Amino acid sequence: MKTTLIFIFTLLCTPCIDAKPQEALPSEQLKARVIQINSLQNKILMKDSKVSDVDNLFNNFTSDFKYVHEAYGGTYEKTHLYNNYVRFLKAGDYTYTQDRYKIISMIAGHNAVSVERQQIHDGKQERHLTVFEFKGEQVSKIIEYWK
User: Fold this and answer.
1) Among 49, 68, 74, 78, fewest CB within 10 Å belongs to which?
2) Which residues are bridge partners to 68 per DSSP?
C-alpha cells in the first residue's frame, strides 16, 4: 500500500514532459518564415484568391494557434479566424491588386519575431507592429499592436 501511494505521488508530482520538445529556430530562419507568412497573408487578400490560399496560410499555424488584436476584437482561435477568412473571401471582400503588407524591419528573438510592416490605407501610409511567435517552424501566435 505504501509503495503504491509513493508511486502515485511520484506520478502526480512529475511534470509532464513533451517527448519531442521543439528546438528554437535560428534568427535567420525565423525571419525567413515571417517573410513566407507575410507573402501568404498578402496572397489571400488579392482579387483572385481562392480557399486553397487560405489553406496554404493556415497549414503554417499550430493546432492551438491564436491571433490577438486587442484594438479589433481581441483573441481569435485558429478555426474562427480561418472561417472568417473564407467567409470574407467568398463574399468578394478581398480585392487587392498589390500586396497589402510590406515588411520594413524585423527583430528576431527566442521563438519570436517583431515585425514593422507598412500598408497604404485610404491613400495614407501606415506602419504597424506585429509579433509572430513560433513553436518550431509553425506560427503559434500573431499579436497585432496597432489601431
Assistant:
1) 74
2) 75, 143
Helices (H), 27-66: 27-44, 51-58
What is the predicted pLDDT for the residue at 100? 93
Nearest to 115 by CA among 22, 25, 37, 23: 37
pLDDT digit string, tens, across residues 60-102? 999 999 999 999 889 999 999 999 999 999 999 999 999 999 9
Is residue 85 within 8 A of residue 44, CB to CB? The reply is: yes
CA angle (8, 11, 17) in 5-degree steps: 170
pTM strictly above 0.85: no
CA 138/CA 102 separation, integer angstroms:
21
